[in-house]
């Protein structure tokens, strides 16, 4: 028991000190840690849909985009500059606080998730994946083209001048001097994202052990048997889509505040594929595994920059560094899935009956 407490305390101290250590190597490393935390939130949200309920969603990035654009529109001068009614009522913009942004992003993304879930309730497997993939692309194309006849999203130019997040009067977009020590903006965002990730993990664990979580897992294993046992599969599926989407919406809003700019390019199909890969690579339905997969796949492309450069020089520049990075990521994923087909850190319950039979 004492060893467990010591490990928890050591892990908490390491997480708190990590950005302060990374600062010495440059803000780029802290930024990688920030984005890794956002991807952890996205992967945990998708894990509810794919890992718990067994619904293969390839359009999850759409909810990420909804949250980002929601915050971008409400926290930038875009609406004031393009709509007379808005300029009349909010001449200086809305400048929403964090406590209003998170519930709004959560509700809007959850509503979008339910709206997606309604027409696909009877679809399963590959058919569901194709429909959700199309939904994700539709959202991105809408964001890219809603700049005429009414300029709502500013099209491919994106939304800029987005406000930074303010917590209890502290502007996370500005450097903070504390006891003579400078804490950069990216480090302040790290602590906000870490707090949101911890809340997300707590919610996921509570859902996993609840009656709702058990109902999702029953649907995943055998939907017909679950329906025969009295589970309302329709409502449970819609709830899974809504709950999973809500985490994506909050992560998107935080991404918009962190970047200060959002555009359709940030929400491509490849982003959805990477988030699904994080869940599968880490271990379907297992929260620690999903976190591990998200951290590895979000940090790996940046770490491989230092490998792709020397390889490019060895080929006299004939191979592009970005292509080499993608090749190395793909090879790493193939090797992991061949060696660990159930994921890097699979759920101990997953495949238990299979192991007994063999």
From TrEMBL:
GO cellular component: plasma membrane
Keyword check for Transmembrane helix: yes
Short name of one Pfam family: BPD_transp_2
Source taxon at top rank: Bacteria
Membrane topology, as annotated: Multi-pass membrane protein
Subcellular location: Cell membrane
Main location: membrane
Name assigned to this protein: ABC transporter ATP-binding protein
Keyword annotations from UniProtKB, A to Z: ATP-binding, Cell membrane, Membrane, Nucleotide-binding, Transmembrane, Transmembrane helix
Residues that span the membrane, as ranges: 7-26, 32-51, 58-76, 96-118, 125-143, 188-207, 238-261, 273-300, 321-339
Signal peptide extent: none
Keyword match Transmembrane helix: yes
Entry's Gene Ontology molecular function annotations: ATP binding; branched-chain amino acid transmembrane transporter activity
């Amino acid at each position: 028991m004492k060893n467990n407490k010591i490990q928890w305390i050591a892990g908490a101290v390491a997480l708190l000190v990590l950005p302060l250590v990374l600062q010495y190597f440059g803000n780029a490393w802290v930024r990688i840690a920030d984005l890794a935390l956002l991807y952890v939130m996205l992967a945990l949200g998708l894990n509810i849909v794919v890992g718990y309920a067994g619904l293969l969603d390839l359009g999850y990035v759409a909810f990420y985009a909804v949250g980002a654009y929601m915050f971008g529109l409400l926290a930038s001068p875009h609406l004031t500059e393009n709509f007379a009614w808005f300029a009349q009522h909010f001449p200086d913009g809305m400048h929403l606080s964090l406590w209003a942004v998170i519930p709004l992003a959560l509700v809007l993304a959850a509503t979008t998730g339910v709206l997606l879930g309604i027409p696909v309730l009877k679809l399963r497997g590959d058919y569901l994946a194709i429909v959700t993939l199309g939904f994700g692309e539709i959202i991105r194309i809408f964001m890219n083209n809603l700049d005429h006849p009414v300029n709502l999203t500013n099209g491919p130019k994106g939304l800029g001048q987005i406000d930074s997040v303010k917590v209890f009067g502290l502007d996370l977009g500005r450097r903070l001097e504390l006891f003579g020590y400078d804490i950069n903006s990216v480090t302040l965002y790290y602590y906000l994202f870490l707090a949101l990730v911890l809340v997300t993990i707590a919610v996921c664990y509570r859902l996993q052990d609840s009656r709702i979580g058990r109902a999702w897992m029953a649907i995943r294993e055998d939907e017909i048997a679950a329906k025969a046992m009295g589970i309302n599969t329709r409502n449970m599926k819609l709830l899974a889509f809504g709950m999973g989407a809500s985490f994506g919406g909050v992560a998107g809003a935080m991404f918009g505040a962190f970047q200060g700019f959002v555009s359709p390019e940030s929400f491509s199909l490849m982003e959805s594929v990477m988030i699904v890969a994080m869940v599968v690579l880490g271990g379907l339905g297992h929260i620690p595994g999903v976190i591990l997969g998200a951290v590895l796949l979000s940090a790996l492309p940046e770490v491989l920059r230092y490998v792709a450069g020397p390889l490019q020089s060895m080929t006299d520049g004939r191979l592009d560094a970005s292509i080499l990075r993608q090749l190395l990521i793909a090879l790493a994923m193939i090797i992991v899935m061949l060696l660990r087909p159930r994921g890097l850190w699979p759920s101990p319950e997953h495949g238990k009956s299979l192991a007994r039979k063999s």
